[in-house]
Amino acid sequence: MLNDILKFFNKTYEYMIILIVLVIILLITIANIFVVGPSDEAIVLRLGKLNRILEPGIHIKIPLIEEKLIVPVKIVQEVKFGFNTNNNTGPNLNEDDGIIITGDLNIIKVEWLVQYKISDPYSFMFKVEDPAKTITDIAKSSMNRLIGDNTIFEIINDNRVGVTEGVKASMNEIIKTYDLGIDIVQVQIRNAMPPKGKVYEAFEDVNIAIQDKNKFINEGRKKFNQIIPKIRGEALKLIEEAKGYKENRINTALAETAIFNAILNAYIKDPEITRERIYNEAMKEILESKDNIEIIDKNLNNFLPFKEVK
């Protein structure tokens, strides 16, 4: 009887050990199952070295020897400079980072931001010691250089897009050199003004004057577009009329020249007949064009004995 009881307890003990081991294995397995979100990728290190990069989904890693790092590769992150709030999805920076010297040696306060996405998780995590600081330093260096190439009026009014595009291109070039594993999506200048005070007020006056100037220019262009086409139309009309008059005069002159040449040739052949014909034609034209005609003798002394010859 005692032996049967001992055998029962021995078997139960063995079963308990097996059950405990199975539970431990199950717990360890569950603890090493992880989910990679739809906007992330996971880097798996085995004994500290890159083993694999995992796409979104459910995955498992080997306990103790493997480590996972989740990297948000599809989220647009941003770093803000010069803002007095810290609502950043990237590093939070001091408001003084927006104070920059322009090319004409003026001080300007710029509120701007850089948006980027991680394109290579491994490079982003391991190629540089501090990716966030590196991005910040590259951004500040590029912006300082581009603003230093422009005057304060260009930054405030005319060339913001040129500056931001230049900063983006410069950052992407440097990031490629560092193999940082990110792409710059956009650089934006949200606001750019001189620091508050008398200088700010003076620039406000200048801005108002510039706006007035642009208003007058636009009004002038509007009137120009209204008046000039009309004047050009009238000028073209006069030119066409002049061309028509020119052609008419040329044709008339050619016709008269042809008549003169014909008369000249006839005169050369028979001067007397030609002279008489010309005289008769001239007299006919004179007599037909006048209503009252009085004829006197060739010595201008007496009227001939008839009037109203037609």
Count the E strands.
11
Radius of gyration: 50 Å
Structural class call reads alpha+beta
Assigned CATH superfamily of the largest domain: Band 7 domain
Helix content percent band:
55-70%
CATH architecture of the largest domain, by name, is: 2-Layer Sandwich
Outline, from the CA principal axes? elongated
Tally of individual domains: 4
> Which sheet architecture does the biggest sheet show?
4 strands, antiparallel
| N/C terminus separation | 176 Å
Estimate the mean pLDDT confidence. 82
**CATH C-level label of the largest domain:** Alpha Beta
- Residue stretches low in confidence (pLDDT < 50, at least 5 long) are 87-92
Stated plainly, the CATH topology of the largest domain is called Tetrahydropterin Synthase, Chain A
Order of helices and strands, N to C? HEEEEEEEEHHHHEHHEE
Specify the number of helices.
Answer: 7
Strand content is 15-25%
Characterization of this structure:
The protein is α+β, with helices and mostly antiparallel strands and 310 residues long. It folds into four domains: 2-71, no CATH class; 77-195, Band 7 domain (Tetrahydropterin Synthase, Chain A); 197-267; 270-310, no CATH class. 55% of the residues lie in helices and 21% in strands. The protein has helices at 2-31, 121-126, 131-148, 152-158, 160-178, 198-269, 271-289; strands at 33-36, 41-46, 49-54, 57-60, 66-71, 77-81, 99-101, 107-118, 182-193, 294-296, 303-307. The strands form four sheets. Strands 6, 7, 8 and 9 form a four-stranded antiparallel sheet that branches. Helix 3 packs across helix 5 (160-178). The chain is elongated, with a radius of gyration of 50 Å. It is a single-pass membrane protein. Residues 31-207 form the Band domain. InterPro entries: Band7/mec-2_domain, Band_7, Band_7/SPFH_dom_sf, HflK. It comes from Borrelia turicatae (strain 91E135).
